[in-house]
Hints:
Elements: H1 5-16, E1 21-23, H2 26-29, E2 47-50, H3 54-67, E3 71-74, E4 91-94, E5 101-105, E6 110-113, H4 119-127, E7 131-132, H5 145-151, H6 158-161, E8 168-174, E9 180-184, H7 196-200, E10 209-216, E11 218-219, E12 225-231, H8 234-246, E13 253-258, H9 259-269, E14 279-285, H10 289-305, E15 310-314, H11 317-328, H12 330-335, E16 339-342, E17 345-346, H13 352-366, E18 369-375, E19 380-387, H14 394-411, H15 430-434, H16 436-449
Parallel strand pairs: 2-4, 3-4
Antiparallel strand pairs: 1-2, 5-6, 6-10, 7-11, 8-9, 8-10, 12-14, 12-15, 13-14, 13-18, 16-19, 17-19, 18-19
Amino acid sequence: MAVEPGARFLDRLRDALPRLRLLTDATDTEAYRHDETPYLHPGTPLGVCFPTSTADVQAIVRLAAEDQVALVPRGAGSGLSGGATAVDGALTVVMTGMDRIVEIDERNLCAVVQPGVVNADLGRAAAERGLFYAPDPASFEWCTIGGNLAENSGGLRCVKYGVTRDAVLGLEVVLADGAVIRTGGKNIKDVVGYDLTHLFIGSEGTLGIITEATLRLRPMPPPKLTLLCFFQTVRQAGDAVAQMTASGLVPVTLELLDGFTIRAVDAALRLGLDADAGAMLMVESDVGGAASEAEIDLAARASEVAGATSVVRSTDPAEADWLREARRRAHWSLEQAGVARMDDVGVPRALIPEMLAVIERVAAEHGMRIGVFGHAGDGNLHPTYVMDRDDPAAEARIDAARAEIYAAALGMGGTVSGEHGTGVAKRGYLEAQRGPDAVRVMRAVKQALDPLGILNPGKVL
């Protein structure tokens, strides 16, 4: 009796890597089918494995290439675009077991880490040396560096320090044929050849599997000063952001919550926020001393000119940390009100007021609850569709609303994904944003690096 190809592959994998943790029972693999995006429809994996070294990943990839079995690389599963969702008949390769901080190089201000390192753990390890790792997604306490690299994740500090790619000096990557390459290194300036480092960042495991990263660290900045500004309307908050941008202000944090989100956060965390406000801005400065005071003064003046009803300064570090945590838990707070699907759009910063008006209009026209929060300082908003848990039409209603929001963002010269990647949730909009010729080039790159199409098939393209 012939052995089914998938079973043969698993047998070969067990023989080649007898110590590899490998799950094949559907009950055990279920937890690895989804990421954090509601209303997606993942496949059923052939199995789920947990490599602990680059050599393990090499062996897995080589066997998969020989048997033409697809692979889905995965970190902690915190993604919000379906980039790590399971594919029918594919082996999901969970990288969380490769969780070693190889080196923190204080002299060269960099860290060498494996992909399973949790973002917050790297931040704490750097802080022990008086250093600072800038990228900080809202899920920083459990998302992994490998996932951040795969999705080119952002965070609350993007407006000043950029997204994940801005903190990467070099990578180690296992290619689709099992070869291992290194891109970049500890050099700050290195312009030899094509920039392969940034090619793999944001590629969502479709071009190679990242097994190590060399990341830029910075000296620890001074303690932050924090400002909260409340407004009657979201439009006023957007106007304040536009004025801050025009004035040249570059705070470390410039975050927005609309009224729906403020009330959800306050109900969940009981912070005593102004539940009658239509919007809130959180502005933070980390330059220190009189310069921080000047930045906060500038933000306060811009908010008052835009119509702020109250402006509150916080100089207590513990209070500021709690307020920052409240912003990080905005999505979680909205989930307490129903099934919350967080989206991710970006526009040029001066157009934040117009984008907010579009989202308000779409919510009203579709009779939907759409909470809005996000990184207003860099034009990146997270309209979040909060649906009744028993609404059978929720997915279709969300798709209709987000199509209008995406069209508006693109019409403003914006993007359908500021920091959440493309995955399966947004691949249908890739050509609308990038154009057919750019997509043709992307397909050529994919074909060159993964001619068998075994790396995370169906994602991005």
